[in-house]
Backbone:
């Protein structure tokens, strides 16, 4: 595809930036969408002939439709839609989950995809086809404690992708979903190092260290097993957290 027109939501985030750089290296013309224009300018510099910046609240259907119109006015078509915008948040047990937490994650992870599909897919169809890439989560393939709202919202992304694929594959629109695990970003690396340091300190202390055992039972780590775990954790810490 020569000089594709690529729309990226959540474009100022870590994944959005990496994706924009990859497409730009392939001569793509970009429409970069984020909630605030100044974040786009701080990330990418000044707007130019190959980069259109659009500030839009993706949870607002009218704002997304206006963004799609801006892309059409600038480029005339959309070849690729990358739905990158989303959020992660741990949460309480299901029976303690508030409507606010539930709605936040469904709005940012699933409703944004609905709005983008409604605004951009008809324009793809009118132009003869295109590609849509959604971002789910590896964790969304099964339930897990403390992640119910997040997993449910990302599971919805997977089901939306499957439905869109079935509806659009005979109309020359290809729809896929990627399922990343933890992405190595500066923010995630910092959190990982904090957790790793806490584990290492616990292993070096004189107190007991309790870990998960077979069949979900907890067991105390001691003796050679504790020393082996400490050595492995130290190696990880040196590899991933050289600055401490």
Residues:
């Amino acid at each position: 595809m020569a000089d594709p027109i690529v729309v990226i939501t959540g474009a100022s985030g870590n994944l959005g930036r990496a994706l924009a750089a990859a497409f730009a290296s392939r001569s793509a013309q970009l429409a970069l969408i984020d909630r605030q224009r100044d974040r786009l300018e701080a990330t990418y510099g000044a707007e130019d002939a190959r980069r259109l910046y659009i500030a839009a609240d993706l949870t607002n259907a009218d704002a997304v439709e206006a963004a799609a119109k801006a892309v059409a006015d600038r480029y005339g078509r959309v070849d690729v839609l990358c739905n990158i915008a989303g959020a992660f948040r741990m949460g309480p047990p299901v029976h303690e989950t508030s409507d606010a937490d539930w709605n936040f994650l469904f709005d940012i992870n699933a409703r944004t995809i609905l709005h983008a599909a409604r605004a951009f897919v008809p324009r793809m169809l009118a132009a003869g086809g295109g590609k849509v890439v959604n971002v789910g989560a590896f964790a969304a393939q099964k339930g897990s404690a403390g992640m119910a709202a997040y997993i449910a919202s990302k599971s919805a992304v997977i089901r939306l992708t499957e439905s869109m694929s079935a509806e659009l594959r005979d109309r020359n629109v290809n729809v896929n979903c990627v399922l990343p695990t933890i992405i190595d970003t500066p923010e995630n690396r910092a959190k990982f190092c904090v957790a790793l340091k806490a584990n290492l300190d616990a292993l070096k202390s004189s107190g007991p260290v309790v870990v998960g055992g077979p069949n979900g039972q907890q067991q105390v780590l001691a003796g050679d097993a504790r020393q082996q775990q400490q050595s492995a954790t130290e190696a990880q810490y040196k590899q991933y957290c050289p600055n401490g």
About this structure: The chain has a mean pLDDT of 92. The helical segments are 14-24, 37-44, 61-75, 99-127, 148-168, 186-204, 223-240.
